[in-house]
Design the sequence.
């Protein structure tokens, strides 16, 4: 793991950001944990961010919502304070979603928050709040736009409309970046229905970089970008490159009044462990209500995870890639860790005990010598004594029940960077062999 001035932090994940130093793609992927904020006119309807499209609302009727969009409880300071308490290191804010409603100061349209009842530049406000708290900032901006005419459908149907549509998209991006630079990340979305050539994506990126040298791009304008963005699932690209999984905290990006299917703090910890083991980021979404207030379950879950990171954050931040010594897809690594996920840093193997084993933990397949063991976060007095026989280690003296309400973490000090390998049989074949299953599998890999 390489640490530098671009991504410095302590073992509990508290992050110190030097705004004068631009992020490299690798340093961005080492931020590890961020807040995605989906907020807009659609939030007032409480049916998700695609409501205009999915319910085929008349555009004129939708525009009338702007007169009621006060954002009265959209408190940028409170939101960024929540991100800090949650242990997050950056925020990504939706400056304009597919509905075309701008949450920033623009001269190109009157359909936005400055011309709505709010009379606020919400993008400028949240950038200032994030910067003052040492959080890195990304700006989400949809390439698509259902409201302005010609729209993408018209652009498909007519070459002159297409030229106008693409030109206006580039103009929006240039205005946005010029107004708020320096920005860490420009987070494209809404690339339908065009590919990179049709979006003139290379020219788009060159234009933005000329305005704000050092800005990073995701890969949603048809080009690979500086990092990959798997949506709704976890999984590093193969071959590995910097990546960021964007995930909802319930099942909705924009606020949905009927969606109460919240992930537990433990499930968020599972996701953090998965990205930490493969050196990626978790961009976890928050969907404020129409008035800008944050649903209380969101606050409760994020604060619980933040408190856990304060106790056990060293197993999440500044980690190395840990693939059990297996590098190819199809390795079914979940079968190796039946007590919970694992991460590593240097010679330390972290076992996140999501399923508490009782007073004794047994691990097999370790191709290293375990020198010592302890529970993180002051969860038990003294150090534990592992007893190792070959590749099997027994750690006794654990409490009968998990000492942590979210997830206890066992840190194993090894004599080398840890490697753990178990095959599908009861011993490892002494010939070349597939690590698990030589046939295509129905198991999902993300």
Sequence:
């Amino acid at each position: 793991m390489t640490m530098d001035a671009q991504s410095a932090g302590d073992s509990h994940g508290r992050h110190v950001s030097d705004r004068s130093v631009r992020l490299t793609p690798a340093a961005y992927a080492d931020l590890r944990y961020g807040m995605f904020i989906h907020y807009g006119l659609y939030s007032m309807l409480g049916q998700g961010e695609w409501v205009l499209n999915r319910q085929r609302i008349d555009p004129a009727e939708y525009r009338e919502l702007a007169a009621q969009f006060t954002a009265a409880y959209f408190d940028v300071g409170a939101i960024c304070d929540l991100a800090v308490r949650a242990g997050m290191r950056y925020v990504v804010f939706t400056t304009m979603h597919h509905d075309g409603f701008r949450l920033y100061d623009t001269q190109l349209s009157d359909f936005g928050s400055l011309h709505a009842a709010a009379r606020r530049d919400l993008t400028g406000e949240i950038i200032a709040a994030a910067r003052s708290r040492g959080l890195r900032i990304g700006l989400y901006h949809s390439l698509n736009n259902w409201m302005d005419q010609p729209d993408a459908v018209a652009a498909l149907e007519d070459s002159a409309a297409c030229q106008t549509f693409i030109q206006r998209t580039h103009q929006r991006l240039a205005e946005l970046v010029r107004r708020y630079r320096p920005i860490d990340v420009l987070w494209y979305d809404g690339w339908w229905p065009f590919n990179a050539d049709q979006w003139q994506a290379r020219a788009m990126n060159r234009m933005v970089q000329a305005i704000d040298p050092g800005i990073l791009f995701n890969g949603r304008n048809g080009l690979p970008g500086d990092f990959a963005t798997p949506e709704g699932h976890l999984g590093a690209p193969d071959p590995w490159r910097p990546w960021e999984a964007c995930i909802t905290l319930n099942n909705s990006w924009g606020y949905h009044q009927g969606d109460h299917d919240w992930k537990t703090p433990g499930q968020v910890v599972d996701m953090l462990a998965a990205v930490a083991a493969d050196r990626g980021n978790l961009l976890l979404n928050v969907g404020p209500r129409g008035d800008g207030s944050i649903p209380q379950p969101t606050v409760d879950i994020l604060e619980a995870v933040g408190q856990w990171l304060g106790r056990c954050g060293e197993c999440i931040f500044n980690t190395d890639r840990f693939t059990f010594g297996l590098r190819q897809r199809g390795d079914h690594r979940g079968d190796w860790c039946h007590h919970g996920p694992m991460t590593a840093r240097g010679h330390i193997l972290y076992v996140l005990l999501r399923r508490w084993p009782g007073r004794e933990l047994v691990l097999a397949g370790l191709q290293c010598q375990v020198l010592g063991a302890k529970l993180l976060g002051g969860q038990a007095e003294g150090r534990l004594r592992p007893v190792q026989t070959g590749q099997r280690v027994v750690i006794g003296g654990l409490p009968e029940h998990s000492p942590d309400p979210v997830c206890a973490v066992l840190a194993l000090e090894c004599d080398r960077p840890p490697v753990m390998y178990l095959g599908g049989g009861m011993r490892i074949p002494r010939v070349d062999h597939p690590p698990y299953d030589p046939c295509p599998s129905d198991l999902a890999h993300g």
